[in-house]
Write a structure and sequence with these properties.
The C terminus is likely disordered. The protein has one domain: Amino acid/polyamine transporter I, CATH 1.20.1740. It is mainly alpha-helical. It is globular, with a radius of gyration of 22 Å. A hairpin with a 4-residue loop joins β1 and β2.
Length: 508
C-alpha cells in the first residue's frame, strides 16, 4: 500500500449519509419562503422540474463515471484532471475544497444566528457578533479535532445528525400531506401577480420568469450531491459510491421538492413569503402550534451542525486529493495515524477561520459567503460534465457496454453540461473573479508540486495560470476600487430572520 493511501473504508450506509448530510443544510428550512418570494405554484413546479432534472443528470454523471471508469478513484478531481490536465484537477480539488471551507463559514454564521433566536442566546445576534464569532471559532476547531480522530468518528456523527434532521423534515412532510388544502394550492396556481415583501407592492411576472426565479434560487441546492465521489478513495467498494450518489440524490430531491410544493397547500404564497425565517417553522406552527416552531429551530441547529461535521472533512479531503494525484505538493496528502487529512485540514480550517473573522468585522455575510462558495463549486461541476460527454463521444469506458448504455449516458451528460453551463453563467463574472483570487492562493502548493516532481511547465499550463492570475488581479482591483463589492451587509440582517439566509439552498 502506498504512503498516503487509506486502510479503513466507509460502507454504503455511511456514504449515503454523507451525500444526504452534506446536501441537506439549513436552506431546506427556509425553502418555502424562498420559492414563494418570486413565484406562484405553476412557476415553482416548472422551476423545480428543471432543477430536479439537472440534479438527476449530475448524479447520473457521477454514477456512470464511477462505474464505467473505476480506475479513476478520486471523483471530481480525477475526472477534471483527465479533461483539463493538472491545472483543471487542481482547480477542481483545491478550488472546490476552498469553496466548501468558505461555505463552512456561512454554516457557522447561520448556526449561531439560529441560537440567537432564543432569548438565552440573544447576544449571538445574527451570528456575526463577536461573541458568536469567538464561540463559533471554538466550535470549528472542536470539529477539526473530531475529524483528526478519523473518518469513522466523523462518519458516525454525521450518520446520527443526518437521521436527527431527516426525521423531523419527514414529519413535516407527512403533516403537510394531511393538512394540504387543494383550494389554497389552486387559488393562485397560475397567477402572474407576485407580492414583493420588500416594497410591499404587487408586480406582474410571467410564468416563465417565475420559473427562472425559482431556478436561480434552487440552483444552490446542488452542492453536496458529489459528496460520495469525494470519498471514493475511502469507500469499501466503488459501486457503493455509485449507489450512494443515486440513493442520496433521490432522497434529497424528494425532501426539497416535497417541502416546497406541499407548503403551497397550507398558506397562500403571499403569506408564506412573509414568514420569518426559517419559514418551515412558521408553517409547522400553523399546523400544530408553537411547539412546532421550536422543533424546527432545534432541527435546523442539528442540521447545520451535522452539515458542518460533514463538510469540514469533505473540504479537507478534496484538497488532499490534489496532493495525492500529483497536481500539487505531496504535503497536502499528509495523513495522521487515524488516516485523517491533517495538513489539508489545517489549510481549509484556516480559510474558514479567516472568513469567520471577516464576517464578524463586517457584521454580516451569509448570502455572500454562500454565493462565493457556490461559484467555486460549479466550475468543477462543469468540467466533470464535459469530461462525461467527451467519454461518451470517444467511447472511453464503453468498450464492453451495449449501445443503449452509451446513448443513455450521453443524454445525461448533455443535460448536465447545459445545466452546469447555465449555473456558471448564473453565478456571474463577479464571483468567477473572486474564485480566481482563491485559486491563486493555492498556486504555491501547485508550484511546489512541480518542483517536487521535477516537471517542466507546459505552454497550455502556463497560459491557464496566466489567465487565472489576470482574473485574480482584476478581481482584487475591482474590490479595491469598489467595482465589485464584497460587502457583507448587502441587506438588513436583524436576528435569524434575515432573508439573506434564504439563499442557503447551496447545501440545502
Amino acid at each position: 500500500m502506498k504512503k498516503g493511501e487509506i486502510k479503513n473504508k466507509v460502507g454504503l450506509g455511511g456514504l449515503t449519509a454523507l451525500v444526504v448530510g452534506g446536501t441537506i443544510g439549513s436552506g431546506i428550512f427556509a425553502l418555502p419562503a424562498t420559492m414563494t418570494e418570486g413565484a406562484n405554484p405553476a412557476g415553482i413546479l416548472l422551476g423545480w422540474a428543471i432543477v430536479a432534472l439537472g440534479m438527476l443528470a449530475l448524479a447520473s454523471v457521477y454514477r456512470n463515471l464511477t462505474l464505467q471508469q473505476p480506475e479513476i478513484d478520486d471523483g471530481i478531481y480525477g475526472w477534471s484532471k483527465k479533461m483539463f490536465g493538472n491545472v483543471g484537477g487542481f482547480i477542481a480539488a483545491y478550488g472546490h475544497g476552498a469553496g466548501d471551507a468558505i461555505g463552512n463559514a456561512s454554516y457557522l454564521t447561520v448556526l449561531f444566528s439560529a441560537f440567537g433566536s432564543f432569548a438565552i442566546f440573544k447576544y449571538f445576534g445574527n451570528g456575526t457578533t463577536w461573541p458568536a464569532v469567538i464561540i463559533a471559532s471554538i466550535l470549528l476547531w472542536v470539529i477539526v479535532f473530531l475529524v483528526l480522530k478519523g473518518v469513522h468518528t466523523e462518519t458516525w456523527l454525521n450518520n446520527l445528525t443526518t437521521i436527527a434532521k431527516v426525521i423531523p423534515i419527514t414529519a413535516f412532510l407527512i403533516l403537510a400531506i394531511f393538512n394540504f388544502n387543494p383550494h389554497i394550492f389552486m387559488a393562485h396556481f397560475a397567477s402572474q401577480d407576485i407580492f414583493n415583501i420588500t416594497t410591499h407592492h404587487w408586480s406582474h411576472v410571467s410564468i416563465f420568469d417565475q420559473s427562472k426565479n425559482v431556478l436561480l434560487a434552487a440552483m444552490w441546492t446542488l452542492i453536496g450531491i458529489e459528496s460520495g465521489t469525494i470519498f471514493a478513495t475511502r469507500a469499501k467498494k466503488l459501486s457503493d459510491v455509485a449507489k450512494a450518489t443515486t440513493i442520496g440524490a433521490l432522497i434529497v430531491i424528494t425532501l426539497l421538492v416535497g417541502t416546497s410544493i406541499l407548503s403551497l397547500g397550507l398558506l397562500s404564497p403571499k403569506t408564506i413569503s412573509g414568514l420569518h425565517a426559517p419559514s418551515m417553522a412558521g408553517l409547522m406552527e400553523h399546523m400544530v402550534g408553537p411547539w412546532g416552531s421550536w422543533l424546527i429551530n432545534i432541527c435546523l441547529i442539528i442540521s447545520v451542525l451535522g452539515a458542518l461535521i460533514a463538510w469540514v472533512n469533505l473540504s479537507a479531503e478534496e484538497v488532499r486529493l490534489a496532493g495525492r494525484g500529483g497536481s500539487s505538493s505531496k504535503w497536502l496528502n499528509g495523513l495522521n495515524k487515524n488516516e485523517a487529512p491533517i495538513n489539508s485540514l489545517f489549510v481549509t480550517a484556516g480559510i474558514t477561520q479567516v472568513l469567520m473573522i471577516v464576517a464578524g468585522a463586517y457584521s454580516a455575510g451569509y448570502e455572500v459567503l454562500l454565493k462565493f462558495s457556490t461559484s467555486l463549486s460549479i466550475v468543477p461541476y462543469l468540467m466533470v460534465s464535459l469530461y462525461a460527454l467527451k467519454s461518451v463521444v470517444t467511447g472511453i469506458g464503453f468498450e464492453n457496454q451495449p449501445k443503449k448504455v452509451r446513448f443513455t449516458s450521453g443524454i445525461w451528460a448533455g443535460i448536465a453540461v447545459c445545466f452546469t453551463a447555465f449555473m456558471v453563467y448564473g453565478a456571474g463574472l463577479k464571483y468567477l473573479l473572486l474564485a480566481a483570487i482563491v485559486w491563486v492562493t493555492g498556486f504555491p502548493f501547485y508550484y511546489k508540486g512541480k518542483k517536487e516532481r521535477s516537471e517542466k511547465w507546459g505552454k497550455v499550463e502556463l497560459i491557464a495560470w496566466i489567465i487565472i492570475m489576470i482574473m485574480a488581479i482584476v478581481g482584487i482591483y475591482s474590490l479595491i476600487t469598489g467595482t465589485i463589492t464584497f460587502a457583507f451587509n448587502d441587506c438588513p440582517c436583524d436576528q435569524f430572520n434575515n432573508k439573506c439566509n434564504q439563499f442557503n439552498n447551496g447545501q440545502a
